[in-house]
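Re-running the complex after MR caught last week's input typo. The corrected sequence lines follow. Everything else is unchanged.
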Amino acid sequence: MLNPFEILETINMIDKENLDIRTITMGISLKNCADPDIDKVCEKVYKKITTYAGNLVKVGCDIEKQFGIPIINKRISVTPVATLVDVLEEKTIDNCVKLAKTLDRAAKDVGVNFIGGFSALVHKDFTDGEAALIRSIPRALAETDIVCSSVNVGSTKAGINMDAVAAMGRIIKQAAELTKDNGGFACAKLVVFCNAVEDNPFMAGAFHGEGEGECVINVGVSGPGVVKCALEKVKGEPFGVVADTIKKTAFKITRMGQLVAQEASKRLGVPFGIVDLSLAPTPAVGDSVAYILEEMGLEKCGTHGTTAALALLNDAVKKGGVMASSYVGGLSGAFIPVSEDAGMISAAQCGALTLEKLEAMTCVCSVGLDMIAVPGDTSAETISAIIADEAAIGMVNTKTTAVRIIPGPGTKVGDTVEFGGLLGSGPVMPVKEYASTDFINRGGRIPAPLQALKN
Amino acid sequence: MNKAVITVIGKDTVGIIAKVSNLLFENNINILDISQTIMQDLFTMIMLVDIKDVQVGDLQEKLDVISKEMNLSIRVQNEEIFNSMHRI
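Corrected-run output:
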Protein backbone atom coordinates (compact mmCIF):
# COMPACT_ATOMS: atom_id res chain seq x y z
CA MET A 1 0.00 0.00 0.00
CA LEU A 2 1.16 3.50 -0.78
CA ASN A 3 1.96 5.74 2.12
CA PRO A 4 0.17 9.06 2.63
CA PHE A 5 3.30 11.12 2.01
CA GLU A 6 3.80 9.59 -1.41
CA ILE A 7 0.19 10.21 -2.29
CA LEU A 8 0.24 13.81 -1.12
CA GLU A 9 3.54 14.43 -2.92
CA THR A 10 2.00 13.41 -6.23
CA ILE A 11 -1.17 15.39 -5.61
CA ASN A 12 0.89 18.46 -4.79
CA MET A 13 2.96 18.08 -7.95
CA ILE A 14 -0.15 18.14 -10.11
CA ASP A 15 -2.19 20.64 -8.11
CA LYS A 16 0.37 23.22 -7.10
CA GLU A 17 3.59 22.60 -9.02
CA ASN A 18 2.27 22.50 -12.60
CA LEU A 19 3.21 18.89 -13.28
CA ASP A 20 1.76 17.85 -16.59
CA ILE A 21 2.33 15.83 -19.70
CA ARG A 22 3.40 18.54 -22.08
CA THR A 23 2.60 16.75 -25.29
CA ILE A 24 1.49 13.56 -26.94
CA THR A 25 2.83 13.75 -30.46
CA MET A 26 1.86 11.31 -33.17
CA GLY A 27 4.51 10.87 -35.83
CA ILE A 28 3.07 9.97 -39.22
CA SER A 29 5.09 8.93 -42.25
CA LEU A 30 4.02 10.65 -45.45
CA LYS A 31 6.44 8.71 -47.63
CA ASN A 32 3.68 6.85 -49.45
CA CYS A 33 1.82 10.09 -50.23
CA ALA A 34 4.37 11.15 -52.84
CA ASP A 35 3.04 11.89 -56.32
CA PRO A 36 4.11 14.13 -59.22
CA ASP A 37 0.67 15.76 -59.17
CA ILE A 38 0.23 18.36 -56.41
CA ASP A 39 -3.51 17.85 -56.04
CA LYS A 40 -3.10 14.13 -55.64
CA VAL A 41 -0.39 14.63 -52.99
CA CYS A 42 -2.59 17.02 -51.04
CA GLU A 43 -5.48 14.60 -51.18
CA LYS A 44 -3.34 11.67 -49.98
CA VAL A 45 -1.71 13.73 -47.22
CA TYR A 46 -5.04 15.00 -45.92
CA LYS A 47 -6.55 11.53 -45.96
CA LYS A 48 -3.60 9.90 -44.24
CA ILE A 49 -3.33 12.44 -41.45
CA THR A 50 -7.04 12.54 -40.72
CA THR A 51 -7.25 8.73 -40.78
CA TYR A 52 -4.25 8.07 -38.55
CA ALA A 53 -4.78 10.95 -36.12
CA GLY A 54 -8.58 11.03 -36.18
CA ASN A 55 -8.75 9.69 -32.63
CA LEU A 56 -5.64 11.32 -31.19
CA VAL A 57 -7.28 14.23 -29.41
CA LYS A 58 -10.14 12.12 -28.07
CA VAL A 59 -7.76 9.47 -26.72
CA GLY A 60 -5.61 12.21 -25.17
CA CYS A 61 -8.65 13.65 -23.41
CA ASP A 62 -9.81 10.19 -22.30
CA ILE A 63 -6.43 9.46 -20.73
CA GLU A 64 -6.56 12.82 -18.99
CA LYS A 65 -9.93 11.85 -17.58
CA GLN A 66 -8.91 8.34 -16.63
CA PHE A 67 -5.71 9.26 -14.83
CA GLY A 68 -6.50 12.80 -13.78
CA ILE A 69 -3.26 14.19 -15.24
CA PRO A 70 -3.36 17.25 -17.47
CA ILE A 71 -2.12 16.57 -21.01
CA ILE A 72 -1.54 20.03 -22.41
CA ASN A 73 -0.93 19.41 -26.09
CA LYS A 74 -1.84 16.85 -28.70
CA ARG A 75 0.26 17.23 -31.80
CA ILE A 76 1.29 15.65 -35.07
CA SER A 77 4.68 15.44 -36.71
CA VAL A 78 5.12 14.29 -40.29
CA THR A 79 7.90 13.24 -42.65
CA PRO A 80 9.88 16.31 -43.76
CA VAL A 81 7.62 17.72 -46.45
CA ALA A 82 10.58 18.46 -48.74
CA THR A 83 10.58 14.71 -49.46
CA LEU A 84 7.18 15.16 -51.10
CA VAL A 85 8.18 18.33 -52.93
CA ASP A 86 11.10 16.47 -54.50
CA VAL A 87 8.69 14.13 -56.26
CA LEU A 88 6.46 16.93 -57.57
CA GLU A 89 6.61 17.70 -61.25
CA GLU A 90 6.36 21.43 -60.55
CA LYS A 91 8.47 22.35 -57.56
CA THR A 92 7.01 25.83 -57.17
CA ILE A 93 6.53 27.99 -54.11
CA ASP A 94 2.78 27.96 -54.74
CA ASN A 95 2.72 24.18 -54.62
CA CYS A 96 4.71 24.12 -51.38
CA VAL A 97 2.30 26.61 -49.82
CA LYS A 98 -0.57 24.43 -50.99
CA LEU A 99 0.97 21.51 -49.12
CA ALA A 100 1.36 23.64 -46.00
CA LYS A 101 -2.28 24.62 -46.19
CA THR A 102 -3.26 20.97 -46.53
CA LEU A 103 -1.32 20.15 -43.36
CA ASP A 104 -3.00 23.08 -41.61
CA ARG A 105 -6.46 21.95 -42.65
CA ALA A 106 -5.87 18.30 -41.73
CA ALA A 107 -4.44 19.26 -38.33
CA LYS A 108 -7.34 21.58 -37.57
CA ASP A 109 -9.88 18.97 -38.62
CA VAL A 110 -8.47 16.41 -36.17
CA GLY A 111 -8.23 19.10 -33.48
CA VAL A 112 -4.52 19.08 -32.64
CA ASN A 113 -2.87 22.36 -31.75
CA PHE A 114 0.27 22.12 -33.89
CA ILE A 115 1.58 20.07 -36.79
CA GLY A 116 5.32 19.92 -37.41
CA GLY A 117 7.30 18.70 -40.36
CA PHE A 118 7.18 21.44 -42.97
CA SER A 119 10.86 20.73 -42.96
CA ALA A 120 13.98 20.14 -44.98
CA LEU A 121 17.21 18.44 -43.97
CA VAL A 122 19.95 20.20 -45.88
CA HIS A 123 22.98 19.80 -43.64
CA LYS A 124 25.15 18.96 -46.63
CA ASP A 125 23.35 20.35 -49.64
CA PHE A 126 19.93 21.07 -51.14
CA THR A 127 17.88 19.00 -53.53
CA ASP A 128 15.60 20.99 -55.85
CA GLY A 129 12.58 20.16 -53.71
CA GLU A 130 14.32 21.20 -50.52
CA ALA A 131 15.39 24.50 -52.02
CA ALA A 132 11.82 25.18 -53.15
CA LEU A 133 10.39 24.27 -49.76
CA ILE A 134 12.82 26.58 -47.96
CA ARG A 135 11.94 29.47 -50.28
CA SER A 136 8.26 28.87 -49.54
CA ILE A 137 8.62 28.89 -45.72
CA PRO A 138 7.76 32.59 -45.15
CA ARG A 139 4.53 32.35 -47.10
CA ALA A 140 3.69 28.88 -45.83
CA LEU A 141 3.95 30.05 -42.20
CA ALA A 142 2.22 33.37 -42.81
CA GLU A 143 -0.71 31.78 -44.62
CA THR A 144 -1.29 28.94 -42.16
CA ASP A 145 -1.99 28.96 -38.43
CA ILE A 146 -0.65 25.80 -36.81
CA VAL A 147 1.98 24.50 -39.21
CA CYS A 148 5.53 24.45 -37.83
CA SER A 149 8.65 24.38 -39.89
CA SER A 150 12.25 23.38 -39.29
CA VAL A 151 15.40 23.26 -41.36
CA ASN A 152 18.51 21.29 -40.43
CA VAL A 153 21.54 23.22 -41.63
CA GLY A 154 24.37 21.28 -40.04
CA SER A 155 25.45 18.08 -38.36
CA THR A 156 28.53 16.65 -36.70
CA LYS A 157 28.88 14.15 -39.53
CA ALA A 158 28.34 16.57 -42.42
CA GLY A 159 29.58 19.95 -41.21
CA ILE A 160 27.58 23.14 -41.74
CA ASN A 161 25.89 24.07 -45.00
CA MET A 162 26.69 27.78 -44.98
CA ASP A 163 24.55 28.41 -48.06
CA ALA A 164 21.59 27.13 -46.05
CA VAL A 165 22.65 29.25 -43.07
CA ALA A 166 22.76 32.34 -45.30
CA ALA A 167 19.37 31.46 -46.80
CA MET A 168 17.76 30.99 -43.39
CA GLY A 169 18.77 34.49 -42.29
CA ARG A 170 16.84 35.89 -45.26
CA ILE A 171 13.93 33.47 -44.78
CA ILE A 172 13.53 34.49 -41.13
CA LYS A 173 13.52 38.18 -42.13
CA GLN A 174 10.89 37.54 -44.82
CA ALA A 175 8.75 35.48 -42.46
CA ALA A 176 8.86 38.31 -39.92
CA GLU A 177 7.97 40.87 -42.60
CA LEU A 178 4.96 38.86 -43.83
CA THR A 179 3.59 38.66 -40.28
CA LYS A 180 4.62 42.13 -39.12
CA ASP A 181 1.15 42.84 -37.77
CA ASN A 182 1.65 40.02 -35.27
CA GLY A 183 5.16 40.95 -34.21
CA GLY A 184 6.72 38.54 -36.70
CA PHE A 185 4.80 35.60 -35.30
CA ALA A 186 5.68 33.27 -38.21
CA CYS A 187 9.26 33.13 -36.86
CA ALA A 188 7.99 31.54 -33.65
CA LYS A 189 6.96 28.56 -35.77
CA LEU A 190 10.35 28.18 -37.47
CA VAL A 191 13.42 26.44 -36.05
CA VAL A 192 16.87 26.19 -37.60
CA PHE A 193 18.67 23.10 -36.34
CA CYS A 194 22.07 21.53 -36.21
CA ASN A 195 21.94 17.77 -35.47
CA ALA A 196 18.12 17.72 -35.54
CA VAL A 197 16.63 14.65 -33.88
CA GLU A 198 14.12 12.44 -35.66
CA ASP A 199 11.76 11.69 -32.77
CA ASN A 200 11.40 15.03 -31.01
CA PRO A 201 7.79 15.50 -29.84
CA PHE A 202 8.20 19.22 -29.03
CA MET A 203 7.27 22.07 -31.34
CA ALA A 204 8.22 23.92 -33.37
CA GLY A 205 11.00 21.47 -34.25
CA ALA A 206 9.11 18.18 -34.41
CA PHE A 207 9.23 16.09 -37.57
CA HIS A 208 8.90 12.38 -38.29
CA GLY A 209 12.42 11.33 -39.24
CA GLU A 210 13.74 9.22 -42.05
CA GLY A 211 14.45 6.25 -39.79
CA GLU A 212 11.01 6.21 -38.22
CA GLY A 213 8.21 3.77 -38.98
CA GLU A 214 4.74 4.25 -40.37
CA CYS A 215 3.26 5.82 -37.25
CA VAL A 216 4.52 6.33 -33.69
CA ILE A 217 3.54 7.91 -30.40
CA ASN A 218 6.12 10.08 -28.66
CA VAL A 219 5.49 11.78 -25.35
CA GLY A 220 7.10 14.86 -23.88
CA VAL A 221 6.99 15.31 -20.12
CA SER A 222 7.62 18.51 -18.28
CA GLY A 223 7.73 19.81 -14.76
CA PRO A 224 10.16 22.65 -14.02
CA GLY A 225 7.86 23.68 -11.16
CA VAL A 226 8.19 20.28 -9.51
CA VAL A 227 12.00 20.38 -9.67
CA LYS A 228 12.04 23.91 -8.26
CA CYS A 229 9.81 22.93 -5.33
CA ALA A 230 11.95 19.85 -4.62
CA LEU A 231 15.06 22.04 -4.51
CA GLU A 232 13.41 24.44 -2.07
CA LYS A 233 13.65 21.64 0.47
CA VAL A 234 17.44 21.29 0.15
CA LYS A 235 18.47 24.93 0.53
CA GLY A 236 22.18 25.36 1.29
CA GLU A 237 23.04 21.68 0.78
CA PRO A 238 26.07 20.75 -1.37
CA PHE A 239 25.72 19.96 -5.08
CA GLY A 240 25.66 16.20 -4.61
CA VAL A 241 22.40 16.60 -2.74
CA VAL A 242 21.07 19.01 -5.38
CA ALA A 243 21.86 16.56 -8.20
CA ASP A 244 20.32 13.68 -6.27
CA THR A 245 17.14 15.64 -5.60
CA ILE A 246 16.77 16.54 -9.27
CA LYS A 247 17.39 12.93 -10.31
CA LYS A 248 14.71 11.58 -7.99
CA THR A 249 12.22 14.17 -9.16
CA ALA A 250 13.01 13.56 -12.84
CA PHE A 251 12.52 9.86 -12.26
CA LYS A 252 9.03 10.38 -10.90
CA ILE A 253 8.03 12.80 -13.63
CA THR A 254 9.28 10.45 -16.32
CA ARG A 255 7.45 7.47 -14.87
CA MET A 256 4.24 9.37 -15.37
CA GLY A 257 5.23 10.12 -18.97
CA GLN A 258 5.98 6.46 -19.56
CA LEU A 259 2.58 5.46 -18.14
CA VAL A 260 0.74 7.90 -20.39
CA ALA A 261 2.83 6.98 -23.43
CA GLN A 262 2.08 3.29 -23.02
CA GLU A 263 -1.60 3.91 -22.47
CA ALA A 264 -1.85 6.19 -25.51
CA SER A 265 0.03 3.70 -27.64
CA LYS A 266 -2.27 0.89 -26.53
CA ARG A 267 -5.48 2.83 -27.10
CA LEU A 268 -4.46 4.15 -30.49
CA GLY A 269 -2.94 0.88 -31.64
CA VAL A 270 0.24 2.71 -32.58
CA PRO A 271 3.75 1.73 -31.42
CA PHE A 272 5.27 3.69 -28.54
CA GLY A 273 8.39 5.54 -29.67
CA ILE A 274 10.10 7.48 -26.92
CA VAL A 275 9.59 9.61 -23.85
CA ASP A 276 11.34 12.94 -24.15
CA LEU A 277 12.59 13.95 -20.71
CA SER A 278 12.56 17.65 -21.12
CA LEU A 279 12.02 20.39 -18.62
CA ALA A 280 9.86 22.63 -20.77
CA PRO A 281 8.84 25.89 -19.13
CA THR A 282 5.60 27.77 -19.72
CA PRO A 283 4.87 31.42 -18.99
CA ALA A 284 2.81 30.32 -15.96
CA VAL A 285 4.28 31.50 -12.69
CA GLY A 286 6.28 28.70 -11.06
CA ASP A 287 6.78 26.76 -14.29
CA SER A 288 10.17 28.19 -15.05
CA VAL A 289 13.63 26.71 -15.67
CA ALA A 290 15.22 30.03 -14.75
CA TYR A 291 13.70 29.79 -11.27
CA ILE A 292 15.34 26.37 -10.80
CA LEU A 293 18.73 27.91 -11.56
CA GLU A 294 17.98 30.77 -9.17
CA GLU A 295 16.89 28.28 -6.52
CA MET A 296 20.41 26.80 -6.72
CA GLY A 297 21.70 30.11 -5.39
CA LEU A 298 21.99 32.52 -8.30
CA GLU A 299 20.54 35.95 -7.64
CA LYS A 300 19.32 36.19 -11.23
CA CYS A 301 19.41 33.74 -14.11
CA GLY A 302 22.17 34.80 -16.51
CA THR A 303 24.68 35.83 -13.89
CA HIS A 304 28.06 34.09 -13.51
CA GLY A 305 27.49 30.48 -12.52
CA THR A 306 24.38 30.06 -14.66
CA THR A 307 26.08 27.78 -17.19
CA ALA A 308 27.38 25.50 -14.43
CA ALA A 309 23.98 25.37 -12.76
CA LEU A 310 22.31 24.52 -16.06
CA ALA A 311 24.89 21.82 -16.82
CA LEU A 312 24.14 20.14 -13.51
CA LEU A 313 20.39 20.42 -14.04
CA ASN A 314 20.48 19.08 -17.58
CA ASP A 315 22.64 16.10 -16.63
CA ALA A 316 20.68 15.20 -13.51
CA VAL A 317 17.37 15.30 -15.40
CA LYS A 318 18.72 12.74 -17.86
CA LYS A 319 20.25 10.52 -15.20
CA GLY A 320 17.01 10.44 -13.26
CA GLY A 321 14.87 9.94 -16.32
CA VAL A 322 16.69 7.20 -18.23
CA MET A 323 15.84 4.46 -15.79
CA ALA A 324 12.19 5.51 -15.61
CA SER A 325 11.39 4.89 -19.24
CA SER A 326 12.06 1.96 -21.53
CA TYR A 327 12.91 4.27 -24.44
CA VAL A 328 14.25 7.73 -23.94
CA GLY A 329 14.80 10.02 -26.92
CA GLY A 330 13.93 13.33 -28.49
CA LEU A 331 15.77 16.31 -27.13
CA SER A 332 15.75 15.25 -23.46
CA GLY A 333 17.19 17.98 -21.28
CA ALA A 334 16.34 21.46 -20.10
CA PHE A 335 14.78 23.96 -22.50
CA ILE A 336 15.58 27.64 -22.21
CA PRO A 337 13.07 29.45 -24.42
CA VAL A 338 13.24 33.06 -23.26
CA SER A 339 9.70 34.21 -24.04
CA GLU A 340 8.09 31.07 -22.60
CA ASP A 341 9.75 31.28 -19.20
CA ALA A 342 8.71 33.89 -16.62
CA GLY A 343 12.15 33.80 -14.96
CA MET A 344 14.03 34.16 -18.26
CA ILE A 345 11.80 37.08 -19.30
CA SER A 346 12.48 38.85 -16.04
CA ALA A 347 16.23 38.15 -16.26
CA ALA A 348 16.38 39.43 -19.84
CA GLN A 349 14.39 42.54 -18.94
CA CYS A 350 16.77 43.54 -16.16
CA GLY A 351 19.82 42.85 -18.33
CA ALA A 352 21.13 39.87 -16.33
CA LEU A 353 20.51 37.52 -19.24
CA THR A 354 22.11 38.42 -22.56
CA LEU A 355 22.36 36.72 -25.92
CA GLU A 356 26.01 35.87 -25.25
CA LYS A 357 25.15 34.15 -21.96
CA LEU A 358 22.31 32.27 -23.62
CA GLU A 359 24.74 31.08 -26.25
CA ALA A 360 27.04 29.74 -23.55
CA MET A 361 24.09 28.05 -21.86
CA THR A 362 23.18 26.26 -25.08
CA CYS A 363 26.51 24.40 -24.89
CA VAL A 364 25.26 22.48 -21.86
CA CYS A 365 21.51 22.15 -22.29
CA SER A 366 19.27 20.40 -24.73
CA VAL A 367 18.53 22.98 -27.37
CA GLY A 368 19.63 26.44 -28.36
CA LEU A 369 18.72 30.09 -28.73
CA ASP A 370 15.00 29.64 -28.40
CA MET A 371 12.18 32.17 -28.68
CA ILE A 372 14.41 35.20 -28.62
CA ALA A 373 13.13 38.52 -29.88
CA VAL A 374 15.79 40.70 -31.52
CA PRO A 375 15.41 44.22 -32.97
CA GLY A 376 13.46 44.50 -36.21
CA ASP A 377 16.39 46.09 -38.02
CA THR A 378 18.72 43.15 -37.36
CA SER A 379 20.17 42.23 -40.76
CA ALA A 380 19.65 38.86 -42.42
CA GLU A 381 23.42 38.32 -42.33
CA THR A 382 23.56 38.92 -38.58
CA ILE A 383 20.77 36.40 -38.06
CA SER A 384 22.66 33.95 -40.27
CA ALA A 385 25.80 34.53 -38.23
CA ILE A 386 23.89 33.84 -35.01
CA ILE A 387 22.66 30.60 -36.61
CA ALA A 388 26.22 29.73 -37.69
CA ASP A 389 27.53 30.19 -34.13
CA GLU A 390 24.84 27.94 -32.71
CA ALA A 391 25.32 25.33 -35.42
CA ALA A 392 29.05 25.31 -34.69
CA ILE A 393 28.36 24.62 -31.02
CA GLY A 394 26.10 21.73 -31.99
CA MET A 395 28.46 20.35 -34.59
CA VAL A 396 31.56 20.33 -32.39
CA ASN A 397 29.81 19.09 -29.26
CA THR A 398 27.83 16.37 -31.07
CA LYS A 399 24.58 17.74 -29.73
CA THR A 400 21.40 19.31 -31.04
CA THR A 401 21.35 23.08 -31.18
CA ALA A 402 18.68 25.29 -32.63
CA VAL A 403 17.82 28.89 -33.32
CA ARG A 404 14.30 30.26 -33.09
CA ILE A 405 14.69 33.97 -33.29
CA ILE A 406 12.12 36.67 -33.98
CA PRO A 407 13.12 39.99 -35.57
CA GLY A 408 9.69 41.63 -35.20
CA PRO A 409 9.59 44.45 -37.77
CA GLY A 410 9.72 47.86 -36.13
CA THR A 411 10.72 46.52 -32.69
CA LYS A 412 13.58 48.04 -30.74
CA VAL A 413 15.66 46.94 -27.76
CA GLY A 414 13.53 47.32 -24.64
CA ASP A 415 10.23 46.62 -26.39
CA THR A 416 8.22 43.55 -25.46
CA VAL A 417 6.70 41.35 -28.15
CA GLU A 418 3.55 39.43 -27.27
CA PHE A 419 3.12 36.00 -28.83
CA GLY A 420 0.28 34.79 -26.67
CA GLY A 421 -0.52 31.41 -25.11
CA LEU A 422 2.33 29.00 -24.42
CA LEU A 423 4.68 31.12 -26.55
CA GLY A 424 4.52 33.96 -24.01
CA SER A 425 6.05 37.37 -24.50
CA GLY A 426 9.64 38.31 -25.19
CA PRO A 427 11.72 41.35 -24.37
CA VAL A 428 13.65 42.48 -27.46
CA MET A 429 17.32 41.70 -26.78
CA PRO A 430 20.28 43.57 -28.26
CA VAL A 431 22.54 41.96 -30.88
CA LYS A 432 26.10 43.00 -31.81
CA GLU A 433 26.14 46.05 -34.03
CA TYR A 434 29.22 44.95 -35.98
CA ALA A 435 28.55 43.25 -39.31
CA SER A 436 29.20 39.61 -40.24
CA THR A 437 28.16 40.18 -43.85
CA ASP A 438 31.38 39.21 -45.63
CA PHE A 439 31.65 36.09 -43.51
CA ILE A 440 28.15 34.91 -44.39
CA ASN A 441 28.49 35.85 -48.07
CA ARG A 442 31.37 33.40 -48.57
CA GLY A 443 28.92 30.51 -48.87
CA GLY A 444 29.96 26.89 -49.25
CA ARG A 445 30.30 24.40 -46.46
CA ILE A 446 32.19 24.27 -43.17
CA PRO A 447 33.83 20.83 -43.20
CA ALA A 448 32.80 18.21 -40.65
CA PRO A 449 34.96 18.38 -37.52
CA LEU A 450 37.42 15.74 -36.40
CA GLN A 451 34.70 14.47 -34.04
CA ALA A 452 32.88 13.14 -37.11
CA LEU A 453 35.68 10.76 -38.03
CA LYS A 454 35.00 8.04 -35.50
CA ASN A 455 34.99 5.00 -37.76
CA MET B 1 -10.97 -3.70 -10.13
CA ASN B 2 -10.23 -0.11 -11.08
CA LYS B 3 -8.66 1.57 -8.09
CA ALA B 4 -8.43 5.27 -7.45
CA VAL B 5 -7.16 7.40 -4.59
CA ILE B 6 -9.25 10.27 -3.25
CA THR B 7 -7.52 12.90 -1.15
CA VAL B 8 -9.41 15.45 0.88
CA ILE B 9 -7.47 18.32 2.43
CA GLY B 10 -8.85 21.32 4.26
CA LYS B 11 -10.08 22.78 7.50
CA ASP B 12 -11.75 20.17 9.70
CA THR B 13 -15.50 20.58 9.86
CA VAL B 14 -18.64 18.55 10.52
CA GLY B 15 -19.73 16.16 7.78
CA ILE B 16 -16.72 15.87 5.48
CA ILE B 17 -16.60 12.08 5.58
CA ALA B 18 -20.39 11.85 5.45
CA LYS B 19 -20.65 13.98 2.32
CA VAL B 20 -17.84 12.30 0.45
CA SER B 21 -18.86 8.76 1.33
CA ASN B 22 -22.47 9.49 0.52
CA LEU B 23 -21.48 10.66 -2.96
CA LEU B 24 -19.44 7.49 -3.41
CA PHE B 25 -22.40 5.40 -2.28
CA GLU B 26 -24.68 7.13 -4.78
CA ASN B 27 -22.22 6.26 -7.55
CA ASN B 28 -21.87 2.66 -6.42
CA ILE B 29 -18.22 3.14 -5.52
CA ASN B 30 -16.76 0.84 -2.89
CA ILE B 31 -14.36 2.22 -0.28
CA LEU B 32 -11.44 -0.21 0.15
CA ASP B 33 -9.33 1.66 2.65
CA ILE B 34 -9.49 4.93 4.46
CA SER B 35 -6.97 6.86 6.55
CA GLN B 36 -7.31 10.19 8.20
CA THR B 37 -4.86 12.43 9.94
CA ILE B 38 -4.14 16.07 10.79
CA MET B 39 -1.11 17.35 8.89
CA GLN B 40 0.14 20.91 9.37
CA ASP B 41 -3.17 21.76 11.06
CA LEU B 42 -5.12 20.52 8.06
CA PHE B 43 -7.60 17.71 7.95
CA THR B 44 -6.17 15.14 5.54
CA MET B 45 -8.14 12.12 4.42
CA ILE B 46 -6.95 9.53 1.94
CA MET B 47 -9.37 6.97 0.55
CA LEU B 48 -8.63 4.02 -1.67
CA VAL B 49 -11.74 3.21 -3.69
CA ASP B 50 -12.84 0.88 -6.45
CA ILE B 51 -14.40 3.17 -9.04
CA LYS B 52 -15.36 0.32 -11.41
CA ASP B 53 -16.61 1.90 -14.66
CA VAL B 54 -16.73 5.47 -13.42
CA GLN B 55 -14.16 7.73 -15.09
CA VAL B 56 -11.80 9.57 -12.76
CA GLY B 57 -12.60 12.83 -14.58
CA ASP B 58 -16.35 12.40 -14.11
CA LEU B 59 -15.99 11.59 -10.42
CA GLN B 60 -13.73 14.61 -10.02
CA GLU B 61 -16.47 16.86 -11.40
CA LYS B 62 -18.93 15.52 -8.85
CA LEU B 63 -16.44 15.90 -6.02
CA ASP B 64 -15.75 19.47 -7.12
CA VAL B 65 -19.26 20.38 -6.00
CA ILE B 66 -18.55 19.23 -2.43
CA SER B 67 -15.12 20.78 -2.65
CA LYS B 68 -16.61 24.21 -3.40
CA GLU B 69 -19.44 23.90 -0.91
CA MET B 70 -17.16 22.95 2.02
CA ASN B 71 -14.07 24.87 0.94
CA LEU B 72 -11.88 21.77 0.69
CA SER B 73 -9.33 20.53 -1.80
CA ILE B 74 -10.53 17.18 -3.11
CA ARG B 75 -8.61 15.25 -5.76
CA VAL B 76 -9.26 11.87 -7.27
CA GLN B 77 -6.48 10.14 -9.14
CA ASN B 78 -6.04 6.74 -10.70
CA GLU B 79 -3.97 4.49 -8.42
CA GLU B 80 -1.64 3.52 -11.29
CA ILE B 81 -0.08 6.98 -11.24
CA PHE B 82 1.10 6.60 -7.67
CA ASN B 83 2.34 3.09 -8.30
CA SER B 84 4.32 4.08 -11.35
CA MET B 85 5.77 7.14 -9.66
CA HIS B 86 6.73 5.64 -6.34
CA ARG B 87 7.36 1.94 -7.03
CA ILE B 88 9.95 0.44 -9.32
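None of the earlier attempt is carried over here. Chain B is about 40% helix and 40% strand. Chain B has a mean pLDDT of 89.
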